[in-house]
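Run SESD1 protein through structure prediction, thanks.
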Amino acid sequence: GGKDRRSGLILTIPLCLEQTSMDELSVTLDYLLSIPSEKCKARGFTVIVDGRKSQWNVVKTVVLMLQNVVPAEVSLVCVVKPDEFWDKKVTHFCFWKEKDRLGFEVILVSANKLTRYIEPCQLTEDFGGTLTYDHMDWLNKRLVFEKFTKESTSLLDELALINNGSDKGTQQERERSIDLNFLPSVDPETVLQTGHELLSELQQRRFNGSDGGVSWSPMDDELLAQPQVMKLLDSLREQYTRYQEVCRQRSKRTQLEEIQQKVMQVVNWLEGPGSEQLRTQWGIGDSIRASQALQQKHEEIESQHSEWFAVYVELNQQIAALLNAGDEEDLVELKALQQQLSDVCYRQASQLEFRQNLLQAALEFHSVAQDLSQQLDGLLGMLCVDVAPADGASIQQTLKLLEEKLKSVDLGLQGLREKGQSLLDQISNQASWAYGKDVTIENKENVDHIQGVMEDMQLRKQRCEDMVDVRRLKMLQMVQLFKCEEDAAQAVEWLSELLDALLKTHIRLGDDAQETKVLLEKHRKFVDVAQSTYDYGRQLLQATVVLCQSLRCTSRSSGDTLPRLNRVWKQFTVTSEERVHRLETAVAFHSTAEKILQECPEQPEAFNEMDQFDEIEAVGKSLLDRLTVPVVYPDGSEQYFGSPSDMASAAEHIREKMKLVSLKKQQLRQPEATTPES
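Sure, done. The structure for SESD1 protein is below.
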């Protein structure tokens, strides 16, 4: 960094005790001499050969080598001799002898006398000067500068190639050029940072002093390096800015191409395998299980579509972001991609939704059909079981249950028709674009199946209705049969009650003829009521026979009701005849007795025939005898009228009247006895 009195640069060559390689020294000198500018080189060099630690022959070799390396630039060579004595004569003679041939002056000088030729401020401390110099620091800075210069120059070439390749040629050529040289060999940011740090260090050493506070002038190579570094940095910044724009454009184009590629992947899958999956799924199944299996298959298809729909959502967001921040030239292409992607995805989603709704409607249709089939099976099973109810109430309950089941079947069939019509409407609304092909044949199979199910259910329901009509008629007849049987049994009960009333309450014979006649008339009316009851019972039993024949069954109660009715009626008839006979006898008795008792004694001629008294006595005795005799039924059983006390009271009344008749007879006989005596 020092300069001689001619402003020439000072080159110091320190020699050491070890063997010095002349080749390496030559290379080093070439490198050092390449650093200064041509202007500096023109002022010449002062070379200081420090031979204090070396031998004379080495020093001589180095001096001679300077002739070959830098003969024109060297103006003075100062050989610093060691403290030990060299052969002055030899050394001086040799340098003096070779002066003309060398082209520069060589002087031998001790270190303390070097200031005679060079200013102390231009010498380092090793030679007694004050020039501050750190060789390792200079070496490190030089290595950094060399590395920066090499890297920046190479980077500038690469960036220029990339940038120039993107500015010319067709789009494909630009992309091909960018692809081949897209990534520089070194990081531009790192190189720029290194250059800035180097420039900052060079500028700092220019204005700051050394650690000792003494200001110093930077070396020419450092002054020369600053504009080189600044120029390289300016060029790097310019090329790097262009490179960033190229990368941005490339990144945008790459992103756009990736989006376009992904869009086409989504579109191709949805229009290819996705549509093919839906194209093969057109059936609706013929049962609940089949529809559920199709639904499960459809869910698997939806799951596969969901993955692509997720990609669609992501792509749509990316496209929207690019549209918000994109260039005008990309808007048309981005909008076209977005529209194409949306159209395909929405169309496919509509197909999936339509298919799902169709399968759900089919499942509901088959569910209603299965429920209706089970209801029809239950109704048919109920109709196939023979009716064997215990009474009319159970028949009414069964008939009510039958009507409820039939009503439930009607509602089920109505629901099936509604579900079927809804399903048919969905199928009819299915257009050919729904699956990408003509679905008329497949739809016809589905329509035929739906209509077949509804027609089959209608026929089954009609058959059940016909059977219900027959069963209803049969059950109504059975209700009528039970009613007739109940009423016939009731008639028997009524007739039995009339018989019981006849025996227990119809016991009076009257106190006179008039009262007895009234009792006889009442009895005839009583008999008419019994006759009507008996006839009603007979009619009911005849109706049960007809109903049993119609129902082809044997009545459980009419078999013993008719004998009971006939038995009670015969008992009633026998009892009624006995009652009539007694009343008629009583009428005859009271009439004759009243006639005799009402005759006046002054008319004895009326009693000339005493046989009337005998007759009335015979009638009275006969009546008294009948009162003590029970009623004998055809089956041999006996039954008395009233209680013994009741019969005794009636008999006493007859005896009293017979006594009156007897007294009357005696009264009539007394005049006959007195007349002959007179």
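The chain has three domains: 9-132, 278-476, 506-669.
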